[in-house]
């Protein structure tokens, strides 16, 4: 599986969860999220250089969807000319994802006996409250800020997919208090880990690590071939995951049309 084929699978993985629609233009796949207008969820995945006509088609598609044009692609050498092309068309880079994969070292199971799978609406409310508390403004270890509309999507997605095993939410407890969260999305051999967070009061105690590695174990038990997540290059989460067994396989920049 090439990196682009992986990204195509990732779009399919998120369809029906973060994405409400995927639009196939042949040379580009466009994702659309009705609830959240963020370019992180409304983007065009491409695997080749674009010509002006193709870019116009992409921009027109986003206009119809009521979203700002955003282009996402693997950070490969042969696609470097696309950067200059987009910049000349008034696009700017806002993010570079670091796609990280677990290196198959033995899994540290510390605190695994304190992990609980969300299996009821009561559990879900505890998860959402803890998740929201883990992601706050002015947190040097959190480059993402507050969750905003994303929290509504997380709630809706659980109701749609939890019963099938495709989407699993986890809580990690310290004594009787929920202190960390994580999510595992199982899709055609991919175990995608996201929504990892811990309360600031317990940072450094290993609960965020446990939340992440428990997902790796569950992904392995589900028979997935790869266990992965995405961070932003140069951020604290990127360094954190490197320390606990994840290795960056490739990066992918995201460009949006400047205002």
Describe the protein's architecture and organization.
There is one protein chain. With 259 residues, this protein is of the alpha+beta class. The chain folds into two domains: 3-98, no CATH class; 112-250, Gcn5-related N-acetyltransferase (GNAT) (Aminopeptidase, 3-Layer(aba) Sandwich). Helix content is 32%, strand content 30%. It has seven helices and eleven strands. It has helices at residues 3-14, 52-65, 80-88, 121-134, 150-161, 207-221, 236-243, and strands at 21-24, 28-32, 44-46, 70-72, 91-102, 115-117, 167-174, 177-187, 190-198, 226-232, 246-257. Helix 4 (121-134) runs antiparallel to helix 5. Residues 113-259 form the N-acetyltransferase domain.
The CATH class designation of the largest domain is Alpha Beta
Provide the helix percentage.
25-40%
Q: How far is it from the N-terminal to the C-terminal residue, by CA?
A: 36 Å
The whole-angstrom Rg is 18 Å
Q: What's the rounded overall pLDDT mean?
A: 95
Tally of DSSP β-strands: 11
The CATH architecture of the largest domain is 3-Layer(aba) Sandwich
Low-confidence stretches: none
**Class based on secondary structure composition and strand pairing:** alpha+beta
What letter string, H or E per element, gives the SSE order? HEEEHEHEEHHEEEHEHE
Q: What's the total helix number? A: 7
CATH superfamily of the largest domain: Gcn5-related N-acetyltransferase (GNAT)
Q: Please indicate the percent range of residues in DSSP E strands (runs of 2 or more).
A: 25-35%
* Major β-sheet profile: 11 strands, mixed
**Tally of separate domains:** 2
Oligomer: single chain
